[in-house]
Amino acid sequence: MKVVDVERIVVDVPFTPRQQKITAREVYNWAILELCKVTTDSGHVGWGETVIHYTWARVTDASVEKVMGESPAKWMNDDSLGAGLQMALFDVVGKGLGAPVYELLGSKVRDWAPISWWSIDASPGDWAAEAQDAVAAGYTSIKLKPRPWWDIVAQVDAISKVVPPHFKLDLDANSTWQNAASAIPVIKKLEKYANVAMFESPIPQGDVLGNKQIRASINRPIAMHFGSPPYITNVREGVCDGYVVCAGKSQVLRQGILSAEAQLPFWLQLVGNGLTTTWAAHLGAVLTHATWPTITCVNLFSNQLIKTPIEVIGGYHKVPDGPGLGVEVDEEAVAEFKVPEDKIQACREKNELYDRPKPRIINSIVYPDGSCVHMAYTSQGYGYFGAGHGPAYVEGVRLEPWPDDGSAEWADLFARAQGHPVRERWQER
Questions:
Q1: Is the pTM value of this prediction over 0.70?
Q2: DSSP bridge pairs for 34
Q3: In angstroms, what is the C-alpha Rg of the chain?
């Protein structure tokens, strides 16, 4: 079996209506996927996908050249190929052997993989609606992104009022709670809610003493991305209760095995659509400590690009037993969402990745005292709050988006906010 063709297809799959609104402020371009279709001389076809503006590694022309004319098995363990191509090679090898991908990865330890719903920061009402959708879809948990520009207690309270007691919230502050002194009071407020299950990276992961202090002061698990602080330091000092594991196959298996040696659970975080979610299930099927629910963000997409959508029952989905990934790509849907080749070529000529226009939105953080901070992009907030320019938590704070309305007032404020967040008194518009 030799690789005779690698087709790379860029698709733009719309998010669900609510998520289109929520993600417009920051991760709007995660909807752009590159599908890899690998064909061998035996007639077998394998598929994989990459979120080109997020995934741990993109597929390159050099990656494609490396595998052409070669056995797919020779290169499938090479993480440097990029997400979509590596996934496709495993898929095609499995199909050639008549074996599911998990048999190529190790010994199967579970038939059903845990999975979680996901949302970036949003209003209490939008989060509550997302959680209700998650419950209706069979999920038992949701991973959420607390941010200093929302009242996290109000957000959690809104969700807790509309979900059953067993439905869990995993809260990832992405280090925006700054330090132990500011994070612990917030966490203590949130511990009063039984639905809150764990916290991820409440403060910078390299702050070993601060994270140890948080862990000793609260009664919920702390999750951290594997590798920071270094594994040995983490285990020796007892910095966290489990990991977030991501990257290519070889790295994932290494991190998963080391987590097992330390007796620490983890969740797989491999962002993508239906193919990526299935790939994550095969990886989780052979890793004993992949017991926390996987994060793939598949719930964002209006179409999973596979003929049989993933069914979640009681927070788990079935690991496919068919050859390769065990799912069939919906090529009609792929054709529907395919980005025209002339647009892709125009980007290549400029050495750019295809992208959506960046939404032009002024994001105003409004405080109860009437002050506000304007950001051109919410991504500015990480550096701003991380440096201590604003409080980690204020009761009653909210975000007021102001889309480009064509006015000179909007253009002037947006231009100023692009350089650095602008602080002033809040004025209703």
A1: yes
A2: 10, 50
A3: 22
